[in-house]
Specification:
Strand content: under 5%
Order of helices and strands: HHHHHHHHHHHHHHH
Number of strands: 0
Radius of gyration: 23 Å
């Protein structure tokens, strides 16, 4: 198709702009296929012969931007907005840095816009390029943007903006965790914000905050001879908050299971415990044992499966304590 890619762009452009949604989605799928193939080859360090996406992105970007703006924020169906976002994410993994820079400029235009649709489109674009192959080129920009993204969640913003902001923070902590940890003040502000917000937002956002904390904790360097590490100052707060959260009413939920997320994060935090928090961990261990004993009361659980799951999660945490204490 290398000899025909220009005609293909013109053809798919017309369909995306003017045809019915079903056909527009099929046209997006053509470029999503190209993006998938080329990004996979780059990830596997294979040669890309024709670099069709690199040749096409200048014409694709206007289509993508137009379709990122929508009022269908939380639609379960596959929409043109979702297709545009997915295609942008793939292009950021296989095209040159000029594409990412173009997207950054777009984000800068609309991320503080008072129009919710345009603001959401900028956040969606931001989310799409977080995993770009040009990691080092945008790491500084990502770090500087964190405060603004946090405000999207903590300020009086529409739910759609809060949801997207929390998703971006989850992805940033996954792909830029080391950079955040190396920046002490940034890590402290972000970590404390996550801890203090675990009871303030709806389940979806809280789960993303728990995942974000997990992303950061997993990337903290640790060895058994450490006298201290960056987590030591937060141990008491995070462990207490998570244990309380795990036992709140309706924490055990099939879609957004706060109990499971809390228990897994407790285990990860405990396993990174340095020597200066051993006394604290011993005290907390006793609290966990008491929590385990409380699960023996059948009347506290609607069914046996939930009761056994709680016992299993707590047993796993106790194993984590035995690894470090």
């Amino acid at each position: 198709l290398n000899d025909y890619y220009s005609s293909l762009i013109d053809f798919t452009t017309v369909i995306i702009e003017k045809d019915e949604v079903e056909n527009a989605l099929l046209a997006f799928e053509i470029w999503i296929s190209f993006g998938t193939i080329e990004s996979d080859r780059i990830e596997k360090k294979q040669i890309i012969c024709h670099q069709i996406c690199d040749k096409a992105y200048n014409k694709l970007l206007p289509l993508i931007y137009n379709n990122l703006v929508s009022d269908q924020f939380d639609c379960d169906e596959w929409t043109k907005q979702k297709a545009a976002s997915y295609l942008l994410a793939l292009l950021s993994k296989c095209c040159n840095f000029d594409l990412v820079q173009n997207v950054i400029n777009y984000i800068g235009l609309y991320i503080e816009n008072t129009d919710t649709n345009k603001k959401y489109s900028a956040l969606l674009a931001f989310c799409a390029i977080v995993e770009t192959v040009h990691h080092q080129n945008i790491a500084g920009i990502v770090k500087k943007s964190i405060e603004l993204i946090v405000r999207c969640v903590t300020d009086q913003t529409p739910d759609s903006i809060k949801d997207m902001g929390s998703l971006i923070l989850e992805r940033i902590t996954k792909y830029y965790g080391k950079e955040i940890i190396e920046d002490g003040p940034l890590f402290e502000n972000l970590f404390r914000m996550f801890i203090s917000s675990l009871t303030q937002y709806k389940r979806k956002i809280v789960i993303r905050f728990i995942n974000s904390l997990h992303n950061l904790v997993r990337q903290v360097e640790y060895n058994e001879n450490q006298s201290t590490n960056i987590l030591s100052g937060y141990m008491n707060d995070i462990l207490s908050q998570l244990l309380n959260l795990a036992f709140t009413k309706n924490a055990y939920n099939s879609e957004y299971n706060l109990a499971v997320g809390s228990f897994y994060l407790i285990g990860s935090v405990v396993e990174k415990g340095a020597k200066d928090v051993q006394v604290l961990l011993t005290t907390f261990y006793n609290n966990v044992v008491l929590s385990y004993e409380s699960t023996m009361d059948d009347t506290k659980y609607p069914n046996e499966e939930m009761q056994l799951n709680y016992q299993g999660y707590i047993a796993t945490i106790l194993c984590s304590f035995l690894m470090v204490c």
